[in-house]
Amino acid sequence: MGDVVADGEKAKETAELPLEIIIHILSFLHPSDRKEASMVCHSWYNASLDLSFQKNVTFCFPASPSSLQMVSGLNRRSRCSLVISQLDGFSMSRSLLLEVGLCLGSKLDGLALPGSSITEASLLALLPCLTSLRKLDLRGLDSLFMSGAFLSREEHRQQVRTALVHLEELDLSDLRYLSDLTFSRLTSCTPRLRRLSLAGNHIAFEFDPYQGCPVGMVEHSSALLSLRNLRRLLTEQKTTLRALDLSRTSITPESLRTIAQVQGLVLEELRLHGCKELTDYSIEVLIKHQPSLQRLDISSCTELTSRTVEAVARGLKSLTHISLSNNWRITEKGLADLTSLSSLRRLDLSNCLHVSGAEMVKGLKESAESRARLETLSLKSCTYIGDLVVSSLGQLLGSTLQELDLTSCVNVTDLSVLAISTYLLKLVILRLGWCKEIKDKGLLGTVEKCVLNKKLEEKGPTFTRTFGNMGFFKPPNMEDQPKPVTQLELQQLKRSAGASLLALSRLQELDLTACSKLTDNSITQVVNHQDLHRLSLACLPCITDDSLVSVAWRCKSLTSLSLSHCPGISDRGVSQAAPYLRRLQHLNLSCCNNITDRSLLALAKHCKRLRTLDISRCKKTSVTTIDLLQSQLPFLENIQCKFIGGADPTLIM
Ligand SMILES: *[C@@H]1O[C@H](CO)[C@@H](O)[C@H](O)[C@H]1NC(C)=O
Ligand SMILES: *[C@@H]1O[C@H](CO)[C@@H](O)[C@H](O)[C@H]1NC(C)=O
Ligand SMILES: *[C@@H]1O[C@H](CO)[C@@H](O)[C@H](O)[C@H]1NC(C)=O
Ligand SMILES: *[C@@H]1O[C@H](CO)[C@@H](O)[C@H](O)[C@H]1NC(C)=O
Ligand SMILES: *[C@@H]1O[C@H](CO)[C@@H](O)[C@H](O)[C@H]1NC(C)=O
Asked: By its UniProt entry, which InterPro entries does this protein fall under (predicted)?
C-alpha cells in the first residue's frame, strides 16, 4: 500500500470525488496507510476524520508548548484518547491539562499520564470536565498519592464522581503510596468499573506490617492497601467488574481463594503474571469458583506445574487466551487437553523449556472439529520443538494461525520454514530469531534451486511476484482434513520443495535476527511483502547492501527495521535505500562498523518520520552530524549513540 501517496497527481484528480466516495475508499486501508493518505490533500484529510475511522484514535505526546496547540486542533474529532507524558507541576503542564478539559472534555475516551509528576490540584482541575471518560490510567503517578490527601475533600469527590460515574477501566498499577484511604476515595467516584489493575502494588494480603496484626482487624490503613479493602470493592462492584490485574503482587494462595470466592463476582479476565507464591491448588480453587474466565495470565508463576494446565483444560470451557510463559515446571502433560478447548485462540508457552509440542499436536488432531482454532502461538525458547511438530502444527492450524513465535527454537531447520510457507498462509507475524539452522534454501522453499541467479534479480520485482508460480510451488490442498505430518511426508515435502516465504502474502512482521546462515541470496528474493511493517535482519553477518536496498525497494510500508551487527551494511546501502524508506520510524544500525556520517545525512534527507535511531558503536559517525540530524528530523525522540567516534556523546552533550 506504499503507493497511495506516491503519486500526488492522481490525488489531485480524485479531489473532485464526493466525500462519501473518498471515505469508502479509505475504509479499505490499513490505519497507517490511511494516516499517510490523509496527508495527500484537504479533502482526503477531511475524509480521514470520518467518525467510522475514529473509534480508537489515541494521541501520544510529551507535554510541551507545541502540544497546547495540538490539543486545540483535536477539537474537530468526535472522540479520542490521550497519552500525555512528562507532565510536571509547573505552569505549562497546568495550562495543558486545562486546555484538554476545555477543548476535549466531553469527547475524551481515555486518558493516561505516564512518566509524569503532576499535582492533585492540576488533575482535579481536569477530571470533572471529562464527562464521558471510559478509561483512566494513573499508573505510577506517585506524586498524586504520596501525600495521602488525594480526594480527601467531599466536594472534590462529588465533582469527580459526577464526571466519572461511567468510568469502566481504572489502572492503578505501580503506585508506591496507594493506601486503603486513597483507594476507597477514588473508587467511590467510579462505581461501575469493568476492569481494575493493581499490578505491582504492595498489597497487604496477609498481615499489615505497620500494625503487626492481621489485616482483617484494621479498619482503614493510611499506609497500605489491604486485601480486606480490595475484597470490599469487589463485592460492591461485582455486577460490573469483569477483569482484574494483580500481576507482580505478593498474592498468596489463601488470598487468591478469598478473591475468587467473592459472592456474585464473575471474572472473565485475570492477570497474575509473576505472582510467585501461587500454587497449583490455589489455581484449582480459582477455576472452581470462576469458571467463566476467558483470559488468564499466569506467566512467571514459577511454582505452577502441569497440574494447573490440566485444571485449566478441565474447568475453563470458554477460555480464549492463556499465558503460561516462563513456567518451567510445565511439561507436555495436559497440553493435549488444552489444545482440545475449542474456544482457545491464544496460547503462550514461551520459555516453557520442557515442552516439545507432541501433546499439542495430539490434542489438535484427536479433537478434530472441536479443536482450538489458535490464532496466536508462542513457543519461544522451547528448544525441544523440532521440524515434525512445526510441520504438524502448520498443517493443523493453517486455517487460523496469524502469529507464530519460534524465537530461539534451535532445533527448527529449513524444513519447518518450508512447512510454514506451505501451510500457514494467514500468518501476519512470524518470528524466527536465533533459529540458527535456517538457511537460504528454507526461505526460498527449495533445496536444489536456491541459486536463482542475479540476472533474473536485476529485472526488478516483477520476477519475484511470479516466483511463487515457477512450477515448484504447490499450494496445500485445503479440502483435505488437516492432520499431523509424518516423518515420511516431511521427507517428501523436502524433496518436492514447496513454497517460499513469498507465499506468506499477509506478513506484517518478520524477525530473522541471528539466523546467521542467511545471505543476500534469500533476502533479496523472498523478503518482498507489501504490508511488511517490522523487519529484523540484525546479526546477519553475511548480508550486504544488496539485501538492504532490495528490502527498501520492495517493502515500502516498513516502519521498523533492525540491521544491528550487520558488518556488510555500508553507506552505499543506506544512501540507496533511504529514499524508499519514507515511512521508517525506527531504525537500528548499532554496531554496523561501516556506517559513517554519509549514512546519517541520507537519513536526514529522506527518512523524515524517524522517531528512534540507534547508531551505538558506529565508530565512524560524529557528534556534529547527530546534532544536524536532530535539527532536521521533526519526530526524532530518541537517538542512541553510545561509543560513536570513539567517545560517548552523552557525556559531551
Ligand atoms: C474540509 O472541511 C472543512 C470543515 O468541515 C471545510 O471548511 C473545507 O471546505 C473542507 N475541505 C475540503 C477540501 O473538502
Ligand atoms: C475500539 O473500538 C471498537 C468498536 O468501537 C471497540 O469494540 C473496542 O473495544 C475498541 N478498542 C479499544 C482498545 O478501545
Ligand atoms: C533438539 O532435539 C533433540 C531431540 O529431538 C534433543 O535431544 C536436543 O537436546 C535438542 N536440542 C536442543 C539444543 O535442545
Ligand atoms: C566493513 O568493515 C569491515 C571491517 O570492520 C571490513 O572487513 C569489510 O570489508 C567492510 N565491508 C564493506 C562492505 O565495506
Ligand atoms: C538495537 O539492537 C541492539 C542489538 O540487537 C539492541 O541491544 C538495542 O536495544 C537496539 N536498540 C533499540 C533502540 O532498540
From this structure: F-box-like_dom_sf, F-box_dom, FBXL15_LRR, Leu-rich_rpt, Leu-rich_rpt_Cys-con_subtyp, LRR_dom_sf
